[in-house]
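Why do we bother with a discrete structure alphabet at all? Because it lets us treat a fold like text: something you can write down, compare, and reason about line by line. To make this less abstract, here is a complete entry for Riboflavin biosynthesis protein. Read it the way you would read a sentence in a foreign language you are learning: slowly, and without expecting to understand everything at once.
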Amino acid sequence: MGKRDGYYIALGSFDGLHKGHLELINEAINLAKRDNSKSMVFTFLNHPREIINKNYKFHYLMENIEKKKILLDLGVDEIVLKEFDCSFMKISPEDFIGNLCKEYKVKGLVVGFNYRFGFKNKGDIHLLEELSKEYNFKLKVIEPFMYKEEVVSSTRIRNTLLEGNIQEANNMLNRPYSLSGIVVSGKQIGRTIGFPTANLELKGNFIIPKRGVYYTNVLYNNKLYKGITNIGNNPTVDGESLTIETFILDFDKTIYNEGLELLFLGRIRDEKKFNSLDDLKARLKKDKEFAEKAEIYYKK
């Protein structure tokens, strides 16, 4: 087999890399292999909506570093993470595809059924079909991926997480939803009742699941631990700002200013205001028993 020539490119935002995205990207990989070509994912560092509307704060499902890792694990040959800025926003649909074909030897494009592109999202599948003839590339349009009779989308997953339905979100993502950040100092109330917590400060704008108590796995120094994560204001101790605090089972290190990743595996209960710290401690003991019986997540 000679040197692989040309690209099959998967186009999209791909926030979350859910099951629908994975099907699309795997199709690009398989088409490239069959045609002795390379596969590429062409996507954005930031979400276009943040540039189109300056007042809009987009909440992501994943970090770019995690996105790249998953794409490389899938077997994508090249990943282009383009910054979407004001000048890029003004590129017409025709020029976007024309520039892509000039920069890379495009043998094929793989897109989702509702893919839009170019200035004001004027480009659609119909225009792509016309451009595929003009630039002589194959076009593969992927049908929607369904879950429980509804289309899987990043928006649906965001809403599912905001409802606190972790299992459903994880089913659509094909892996546990996760949040990464740095451990910062908190009120240290948990320490006084035998449940010291790691207070996580996120590194950007990400979807935070509905307030409540969750069973999590905690990735620290490449090792997984069981955890109980509280998302909320800690009403029992007059908390005001939203915090993400995790009690890590079988763990006794001080890890301020170190990195952690939380893998959300299930919702245990709603956040509740207890009458006393003793009542809170009794409930946390029950939460701990739940976590002790639960399974650790391992990649299939």
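What the structure line is telling us, in plain words: Residues 277-293 form the longest helix (17 residues). The chain has two domains: 7-151, 176-293.
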